[in-house]
Amino acid sequence: MARRTTAARRYAEAAFQMGKEERGLDRWDRELGLLRDLLRDPQLRAVADHPAIAYAAKERILRATAGTEIAKEPLELVLLMIRRGRPRAVEAMVDRFEELLRRERGISLAAIRSALPLQDDERESIVGRLGELTGTKIQTSEQVDESLIGGVAVRIGDTLYDASVRSRLERLRARLTVA
C-alpha cells in the first residue's frame, strides 16, 4: 500500500507541475476526475487490472472509452500508470492532485460530522469559525453521525476539532475513573 501511495504522490505532483506550467490546472482537475470516474467502472477496472490483457488492448479500450473530451496529457499520464502496473493508484493520484490544487488556492477541506443535519446558519457559523482558525477558505463535506449524540466533529487534514457530546461524556468518564 505504501508503494501505491508513493507512486500516486509522485504522479500527482508531476501532473500538478505540468498543469501549472501550462496554466491549465482546472482542465487537469476536470479531466483527471473524469478518468478516475471511468476507472471506477467495474468492467473497465477489471480490464486495467488484469495482468493477462496486453497493454495495447488496455490502451485501445481506455482511449475509446475516454473519447475526445479528455486531452492528450492527462490520458497519457493515466495510461503510463496502467502500463507500469499501477492502475489502482490512479484514484489516490487524483485525490492527491486535488489536495495540491486546494493548497495552491488556499482552500482547506473540512469533513464535518454532526449528530443531526446542519441548518444553513449553523453551517455558515462553523465554516466562518474554521476559516478564522485556519486562515484559509473552507470547502466542506458533511456526514450525519448519530453516535455523536449531539454537537459536531470536524477534521481538517490531521487536525480534529471535536465538540461532540460523545467526546465530552468520554472525557468525563475518564476523569471519574481516574479519581
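(the above was protein one; protein two follows)
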Amino acid sequence: MSDKFNILDYTDGSLLKSGQTTDFTPAGRTTKDDGGFQRGIAGSKADAQYDVLTTGQYAGTTNITVNAIVDAHTNACVFDKVTGLMWNRELTPAIYGIGTEHLRWDDTAGANEDIFNYCDSANLSQLSGFSDWRIPNIVELNSLLIYESSFTPPLINNSAFPVWTISTVYTSTTRADGILICYAVNFTQGRSQFGTKTVSRIPTVLVRLGIE
C-alpha cells in the first residue's frame, strides 16, 4: 500500500466525528445533539477507517533501550486513513522505575526514563522500519477517542488497538497555564486530564505521518 491519505481529501467537514451514535437530545427539540447529527468526516472511528499492519516490516519486534532496560516492542502499526497518521499498535510498557512502572514525561533529573528518550531510542532502532516517530499532541491523540456512552472502555477501536488496557495516555502537549504540567488523554472517561511532568508515570504511544 503506497497511497497517502489526507484529511483535506474528505469533503464532509474538516473535523472527525466523535463516534457517539446515541441521541440524547431532549424530547421535543428539533436541534439535535452530537449523537443525533453525527457530523464530521464519514467513517471516523469505524473499522474501515483503519488499516492494521502486521506483516513484512510490521511483523515481529524491535528492541527499544532506555536506561539499559530493553523493551522488545511490537512493530505492528495502525494506519488511520482519515487523518493520515500511523500509530504504533501498543503503548509503552511498564518496565521502568522501581519495580515495574511507566515512563515520566520529563526525567532529565533522574535516569532519563522519559517518553522522549524512549521515542529517540525507537527512532535510533528504526521501529517498524521508520526513524521519524514522535509523541502525539493532544489533538492527534484525542482523534482516537470514541465518545459513545454504550461503548466499553477503553474508548478506542478495539479491533485496531486490541491491547490498550490502560486508561490514561501521555501527549506531547504542555498545559497552557503551567509549564510543569502536561496533557494526557483518559480513554476510560473520554476526556483530557493533566500530569506532572517530572512525577507522573503513565504510558504513551508513538505516532508518525504517512504510510511510507
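Reviewer note on protein two: The longest helix spans residues 115-124.
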